[in-house]
Design brief:
By secondary structure, the protein is an alpha+beta fold. It is 34% helix and 12% strand. It is built from 6 helices and 5 strands. It has a 3-stranded antiparallel beta sheet.
């Protein structure tokens, strides 16, 4: 092995859950299902694909999401609380079905012209909330 090269971890990758995020009022206002969806989506994040994260029922079934209503509610909650944002609206376009794509707001997005995603810095939208009541009010209004 070359000197200075770190061997790959035999356990695989990891998901970083920073204390700032866990200690935020927005995170504390989320349900366990919302947090589980965030973790399942975060598993798909690699070095440069932020903004190209899909959250379809077919790809999240292994994570325990079996209801499209639950998945839609959790996606709305994560977007409302500022943890994710939509980068492409899904549906039928140009004669083919495309899924919605999402980005994590605590990571920068690189330019991906093939899927029409523009580069942008991390926005940390979840930081705008000051109280749990404020977040829960937003979540009630979104549902």
């Amino acid at each position: 092995m070359r000197r200075g090269k770190v061997p790959p971890d035999p356990r695989g990758g990891h998901i970083r859950l920073h204390w700032e995020l866990v200690d935020s009022v927005a995170w504390r206002a989320l349900s366990w299902a919302d947090r589980g969806l965030w973790i399942a989506m975060r598993r798909k994040l690699l070095n440069s694909n932020n903004g190209n994260i899909e959250a379809t029922l077919a790809t999240l079934r292994h994570a325990g999401f079996t209801s499209s209503a639950t998945l839609a509610k959790c996606l709305r909650s994560l977007m409302c609380a500022g943890f994710i944002d939509k980068t492409r609206q899904g549906g039928v376009a140009y004669g083919q079905k495309v899924c919605s794509l999402y980005r994590f707001t605590d990571e920068a997005v690189f330019d991906m012209p093939k899927i029409d995603v523009k580069a942008q810095p991390a926005t940390h939208d979840w930081r705008r909330f000051k109280t749990i009541a404020e977040v829960r009010g937003q979540l009630r209004a979104a549902h």
